[in-house]
Amino acid sequence: MFNTRFQLAELTLAGLCSFQIQGEIVSPSSPLSYPCDQKPILLFLHGWQDNAASFAPLFVTLADKFHLIAIDWPGHGHSQPRGKDNYYYFFDYLDDLKQLMALLPDREVYLVGHSLGALVASCYAAVFPADVAGVVLIEGMSPLHESPDHMVQRLRDGIASRQRYRRRTELWGRGRGMSSFQEALKLRCTVNQLSAEQLAPLVERATYQDGSNWYWRHDNRLRCDSLYRMAEGHAKVLMSQIQCPVLSILGRSGFTALKQPEAGRHWLQHGSQVEVDGGHHCHIESPRAVCEHIVRFTSNFSQLA
Q1: How far apart are CA 15 and CA 51, in angstroms?
Q2: Contact 278/284 with Cβ under 8 angstroms?
Q3: Residue 84: is it exposed, middle or buried by C-beta count within 10 angstroms (0-12/13-18/19+)?
Q4: CATH 3.40.50.1820 domain extents, the chain
Q5: What is the pLDDT of residues 51-80, one digit of tens each?
Q6: Where is the AB hydrolase-1 domain (predicted)?
Q7: Helices 116-127 and 92-101: crossing angle, nearest 10°?
Q8: Nearest-angstrom CA–CA distance, 100 and 70
């Protein structure tokens, strides 16, 4: 894997590629170039408080058939945070992705999103169908939605979460430090119920050392509650407008809500779903099975369309 950076209008995204690029940064004046072959692109979009290394277990298997790019979303991994007055509004990720897509060569692009990345991928495919050949959604489906009756409480809770963030920032600055990398790794293993070996690449990219302490790289504003969540009708319209084939990959012990009708699978024009061993991070727990499903899905594209 090779580190790279992508220059967007307001910030720089960091990422990992399966190939080495020329120059230090990809920008509109220096777009991305590939070897002279016609491999399609798999563009990986990670989940909330994860980073590009979440997909490291898939790279070795898939690099023979695809050009692979995994990005760090703003405020995650090695990417820049958003401006100080920005609290990571969901639809801004679509703007980021549209700018990133403009930097890629003109060839087939498949979006592979996990969790938050899956929600962004499904919305993007609906809004910009000409950009996407197919979408793989790992433990994620339609954008989060809820009854309009929750709107007042959501606004109240969202504003309160921002106030708590500001108070914590005044008290702790960048947050409490950890005594070692191993402490950070242990904390993440406890949260995700995965092994240290499975999570080490992700946590390495998610932390940094300053003096004797270790800190998380992700922007603490990511923990603030959203001020808005769309209604089910809005989510249904978005999902029903996806024209390309969609593959949903779920962990057998993952989020049970994703297996329910309201998750959005039945709103798709061309959707299929499979299960693999593992939980919410099933692509880390069962990388071989996930890779096999991705390869089969893309090779059967003409049958699914």
Answers
A1: 9
A2: yes
A3: exposed
A4: 2-145+230-304
A5: 999 999 999 999 999 999 999 999 999 999
A6: 40-287
A7: 70
A8: 11
Q: What pLDDT, in 10s, does the model give residues 287-304?
A: 999 999 999 999 976 443
Cα–Cα distance between 80 and 192 in angstroms, integer? 25
Residue 40: which residues within 8 A CB-CB, separation 6 or more? 66, 67, 107, 108, 109, 110, 133, 298
What's the pTM value of the predicted model, to 2 decimals? 0.94
pLDDT grade, residue 36 (50/70/90)? low
What superfamily would CATH give domain 2-145+230-304? Alpha/Beta hydrolase fold, catalytic domain (3.40.50.1820)
